[in-house]
Amino acid sequence: MVTYGATLSAQIFWEERATTFTAASRGVSQISFADENNVWINAYDGVTVANVIQEWARSTDGGNTWINGVINIGNPALGIGSIQARSATKAYTIAYVSAGGAGGGVWVTNDTGASWTKQPSAVFSTPVDAFPNWVYFWDDNEGIAMGDPTNGYFEVYKTTNGGANWNRIASSNLPTPLEGEYGYVRNFTVVGDNIWFGTNMGRLVKSNNRGNDFGTVAYQSPLSDFGSAGISGSYAFQDANNGILIGNEWQFWRTVDGGVTWSSESPEGVVRNGDVCWVPGTTNTYVSLGTDIDNELRGSSYTTDGGLSWTDVNTLDPGDDIAVDGTGAVAFANPSVGLAGGFSTSATVGGIFKFVGDPSVLTLANVDFKSADVATATPNPTTGILNVAGKNISQITVFDVLGKQVSTTNYSALSNVALDFGSLNSGVYMVKVTNDLGNTSTVKVVKQ
Prior knowledge:
Elements: E1 3-5, E2 12-18, E3 26-33, E4 39-45, E5 55-59, E6 67-70, E7 78-85, E8 91-97, E9 105-109, E10 117-118, E11 132-137, E12 143-150, E13 153-159, E14 167-168, E15 183-191, E16 194-199, E17 203-207, E18 219-220, E19 233-237, E20 243-247, E21 252-255, E22 263-264, E23 268-269, E24 276-278, E25 286-291, E26 298-303, E27 309-315, E28 330-334, E29 337-346, E30 349-355, H1 359-362, E31 376-378, E32 385-400, E33 405-420, E34 427-435, E35 440-447
Parallel strand pairs: 23-27
Antiparallel strand pairs: 1-2, 2-30, 3-4, 4-5, 5-6, 7-8, 8-9, 9-10, 11-12, 12-13, 13-14, 15-16, 16-17, 17-18, 19-20, 20-21, 21-22, 24-25, 25-26, 26-27, 28-29, 29-30, 31-32, 32-33, 32-34, 34-35
């Protein structure tokens, strides 16, 4: 096992695990958690990406150990669009004909991947145009499958009985596609009842009711395409409104209205240009994979303030295999359980990285105070004295941007505290304020 250290105060962030794919250079296309223990992934060929790979691997211990198998759907020429975990034994997959057209669809396994059964009512049968992209389930009954436009509108199906019956969403509940517009495999994200998918025209299509109605308007993102050879980007949301978008040329944007509008920002720290995910159970925490803009070295970074600043947790040599540019997948089940795709060296070496860091690092910026008790810090930026105001303050802890504790002081239920930042180096700090009930609020402070 290879263990990679991080620049994060000498802590370890990722440890490598073996996906057990028998061929070398197997990458991870998608990571799907059924819960914090049960997770499924599907593979791709890291040498010749266009090769069709019908392989799965699954773990029942949160990604520590894996077993693998074949997605046997009766036609080895079909490409695997996505995989969706439901339990240790049950998962769904969607497959497509590489040149488009009839033949693809949705399959399910109920026997740990030993056999896969097609669900025929998710038709995807229009000649030439049909192209299934991804499938997702909110629970054992309610799911959605999305494909490219056929007959003038996106081919999207819903099921409420586990896929026994799929019904196509009416064109009136979807935005009209632009000329030549289509979606991409695995290009979607879900938070609660909200779901978004991206297109080759750089548009985001959103539903806030589990895909029953996507409305009639698609939102134009700052990117012109979400997945072409030259232009691409990854997006993630933490709720119905707040999300981030990272372009493959390291551009960065944030939205506070669900993707309707985006603001361009220049974050501090290392922003990666590959996959990005929100960490469930946190506020404003995202993890990104890819290369960095300065050295183009593969690695990962995280933010706890919605993307304003990023902490580089590992910078690997160009030959190391975490987060290969824009194709490595990353996903977290909660702040304690996360996985990042790499490449296998053999059946017993490599392929995926498991988060082994301190979960509290990813939750530093969470706000747990009651709304009336949120702490404030002024002036901000500060050159010396920082005045912290709150209700019944019992402790203040200061962390630097790498998560290292700088100081901690206890108080007796104060409403105002003066902190001396004069001796600290210039930079970004997180001031965590705790009240007498144990509630916390963290304020980002800039020391000039």
